User: Which sequence fits this backbone?
């Protein structure tokens, strides 16, 4: 196995009341896992004065109360934890919650599934099986409220973005690129390929929990027949028949 | 409950407060007023201990009425205001009676102005804030006919006040601190950035504004992972055109960021009208920390810059001693003169 570069976490200022701990500049899988691990650890035991913890793909942002803690002290504390995580080859932390989300793959709901399957050297059925078997986690939420970046799919899924944009994919679309999946919260243009559709709305301001997903949540897609999808999309809670298990 | 009614909306009018912090991890930026200091100054003028929701007016105001006597504050970018045709001072509070027509026209300088009633707007909140967040469909631009509920005025008989404010409505020098990606820019690019004079582009909204210059400022490294962004971040779009992120920015971005505008100077960027000149001064974290004030401190400082508009004899004695006995002036008397109420 090829030796991977050693992770060297840095603690950097992020605005006047923020510290960003970053494991790598580029989206390396090991750095992603380390960021997840650090965020989960900080969530369990937040350092004094920390008001907000937000995991990015390869970094974790902490906002702090300047009246309680000093930037340098917080940076040092978090960097110590980050170095301990980086010293061991990190694995994804055990998830605290798991969502099982019904999804209709291929056909009109996943117009680019065939193209993706060909690119990873699999049949459409095998590609769906790989997505549904993957131990997917919410790596980060962003671009739009509630919108998750999920990963990581197996290495063959390290597909580049398309050179031309998909002019419109619908809300609930599952799109794939660079070993990740994004589940769109609203109709969007994207350079990622649409492989499936769900009735899951990761952002609905009218819901008591407008943004139900949390970074670190496990997500499993359950394939359903195209004919079942309309009823799931129409289901009242906007979660498309998703189930949530609390694991820890 | 009193009501502030929008009779005519000329500019882009939205309800804004200090936004909803604490949701970056869920992809939601804080949002809220583009010029937070202007809302704080409104609270100071109205003698309120917390910052209230008001109407943010972009570019132009409109015509407003009230159904019960109401104190209001006019802050942020100076606009021309009249009450039944008589001019009202800006950076000041005033009392409005039912039947009177408050008319607010275009901004004389700056970009965002605020009409804040005492007691604040009490429109429905979402996640603890009443702020419209237009880019994600929270709240909406106010239209003619909108009737906005207003909270109880804690001190309805309080006299009209005026507040001295620094001129932050015409561009100027903006201080920035290093951010997580400053080091991926070369020293030459950083030096060039520091000596360039930018023009606030016409292109801008509540998510951010573009700054134009001949020079380009590109990062040395490509393929960097997206990470968290926040208001004040200076991101380089395309081949190195700076864009300053503002209240309604995304939470995550992939463009390289050269630094972050310090909170003290962010209102100056938000208020710079198209065409205004902007320069950046890179300061150390220690200096930025020394300049930082939290909202409670800003409110206390703003309160100390307020004084009564109607100069009764008791106040007059105080004013005279303040301006003359020490042999110095505060330097803002002219602004006060312009702000005098009728």
Assistant:
């Amino acid at each position: 196995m090829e030796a991977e570069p050693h992770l060297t976490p840095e603690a950097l200022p992020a605005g006047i009341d923020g510290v960003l701990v970053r494991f790598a500049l580029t989206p390396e899988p090991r750095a992603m896992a380390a960021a997840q691990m650090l965020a989960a650890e900080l969530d369990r035991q937040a350092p004094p004065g920390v008001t907000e913890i937000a995991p990015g793909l390869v970094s974790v942002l902490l906002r702090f109360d300047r009246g309680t803690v000093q930037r340098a002290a917080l940076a040092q504390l978090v960097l110590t934890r980050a170095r301990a995580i980086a010293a061991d080859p990190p694995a994804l932390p055990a998830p605290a919650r798991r969502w099982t989300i019904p999804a209709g793959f291929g056909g009109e709901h996943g117009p680019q599934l065939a193209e993706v399957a060909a690119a990873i050297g699999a049949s459409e059925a095998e590609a769906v099986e790989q997505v549904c078997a993957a131990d997917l986690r919410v790596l980060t939420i962003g671009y739009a409220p509630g919108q998750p970046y999920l990963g990581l799919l197996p290495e063959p899924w390290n597909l580049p973005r398309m050179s031309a944009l998909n002019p419109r994919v619908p809300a609930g679309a599952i799109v794939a690129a660079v070993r990740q999946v994004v589940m769109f919260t609203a109709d969007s243009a994207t350079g990622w390929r649409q492989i499936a559709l769900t009735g899951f709305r990761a952002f609905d301001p009218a819901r008591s929990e407008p943004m139900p997903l949390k970074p670190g949540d496990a997500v499993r897609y359950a394939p359903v027949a195209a004919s079942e999808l309309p009823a799931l999309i129409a289901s009242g809670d906007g979660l498309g028949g998703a189930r949530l298990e609390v694991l820890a | 409950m009193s009501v502030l009614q929008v009779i005519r909306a000329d500019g882009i009018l939205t309800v804004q407060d200090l936004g909803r912090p604490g949701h970056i991890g869920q992809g939601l930026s804080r949002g809220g007023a583009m010029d937070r200091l202007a809302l704080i100054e409104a609270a100071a003028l109205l003698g309120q201990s917390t910052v209230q929701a008001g109407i943010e007016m972009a570019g132009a105001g409109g015509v407003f009425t009230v159904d019960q006597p109401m104190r209001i504050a006019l802050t942020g970018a100076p606009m021309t205001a009249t009450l039944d045709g008589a001019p009202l001072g800006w950076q000041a509070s005033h009392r409005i009676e039912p039947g009177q027509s408050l008319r607010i026209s275009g901004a004389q300088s700056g970009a965002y102005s605020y009409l804040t009633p005492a007691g604040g707007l009490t429109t429905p909140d979402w996640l603890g804030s009443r702020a419209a967040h237009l880019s994600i469909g929270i709240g909406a631009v106010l239209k003619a006919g909108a009737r906005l509920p207003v909270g109880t005025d804690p001190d309805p008989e309080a006299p009209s006040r005026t507040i001295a404010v620094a001129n932050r409505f015409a561009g100027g020098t903006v201080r920035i601190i290093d951010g997580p990606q400053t080091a991926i820019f070369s020293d030459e690019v950083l030096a060039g950035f520091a000596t360039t004079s930018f023009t606030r582009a016409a292109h801008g909204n509540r998510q951010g504004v573009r700054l134009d210059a001949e020079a380009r400022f590109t990062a040395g490294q490509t393929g960097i992972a997206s990470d968290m962004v926040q208001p004040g971040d200076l991101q380089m779009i395309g081949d190195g055109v700076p864009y300053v992120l503002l209240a309604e920015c995304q939470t995550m971005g992939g463009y390289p960021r050269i630094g972050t505008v310090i909170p003290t100077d962010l209102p100056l960027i938000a208020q710079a009208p198209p065409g205004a000149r902007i320069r950046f001064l890179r300061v150390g974290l220690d200096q930025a920390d020394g300049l930082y004030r939290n909202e409670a401190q800003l409110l206390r400082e703003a309160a100390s810059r307020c004084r009564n508009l109607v100069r009764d004899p008791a106040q007059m004695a105080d004013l005279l001693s303040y301006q003359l006995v020490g042999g110095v002036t505060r330097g803002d008397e002219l602004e006060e003169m312009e702000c005098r109420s009728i």
Summary: The mean pLDDT of chain A is 93. The helical segments of chain A are 29-44, 71-87, 113-119, 124-133, 229-234. The two ends of chain A are 34 Å apart (CA to CA).
